[in-house]
Specification:
single chain, two-stranded antiparallel ribbon, 5 helices, MobC, 186 residues, 66% helix, elongated, Bacterial mobilisation domain-containing protein, mainly alpha
Length: 186
């Protein structure tokens, strides 16, 4: 393994041999601010293990190496013994593994579409609250300046809030179907 400072302008970039034997210059840009480049030679079994780490943790091979080193370093620094380190390492790896859900594609599509509808409804409700807030601020401004507040304006705000309350109750009942679909999936 060799370690070279990336800040040293004299050192060449990380390179790989291309198919014809000539060197193809390739520099990793996946981690801005990296201060060192580490080159490692591996046998086939090591490459297979690295590919498995990459598959389990996600990202590129370089990301897999960085994550694996970080996980092992954290596990070793927190542990008082090798057994404790192994247990900690097992827990840390399990926490980082992506969760794969096996479900009927049509159910997942339905759930995704329902979430989009829910998000759109909540966005519309947020906009209505903003408009009501603007109206309320205008009413308060008139009242604070000593002016007379129109009773119809107050009733208008009250009616708008009542309508939003009804819509929110209706949407809450409708959103129960999303929860039901999620229970089917999980």
């Amino acid at each position: 393994m060799s370690v070279a400072s990336a800040e040293d302008a004299e050192l060449p970039p990380v390179s790989r041999r291309s198919g014809g034997g000539e060197r193809a210059e390739v520099r990793s840009t996946s981690s801005p601010g990296a201060s060192e480049v580490v080159t490692v030679r591996m046998h086939r079994d090591g490459i297979a293990a690295l590919t498995e780490v990459q598959r389990l943790l996600g990202g590129s091979r370089s990301d897999g190496v960085r994550q694996a080193v970080q996980i092992v370093a954290e596990a070793l620094s927190d542990a008082s013994s090798i057994n404790a380190a192994q247990k900690s390492l097992t827990q840390r790896l399990a926490a980082r593994r992506p969760v794969v859900v096996k479900a009927d594609e049509s159910v997942l599509t339905d759930v995704r579409d329902m979430f989009r509808e829910v998000a759109e409804r909540y966005s519309r409700q947020a906009l209505l609250f903003q408009k009501i807030g603007n109206n309320w601020n205008q009413i308060v401004k008139v009242a604070n300046s000593g002016g007379l507040v129109d009773a119809d304006a107050l009733r208008g705000v009250e009616r708008a809030l009542d309508r939003i309350a009804l819509v929110m109750e209706r949407d809450a009942k409708r959103d129960e179907t999303v929860v039901t679909k999620l229970r089917e999936v999980f």
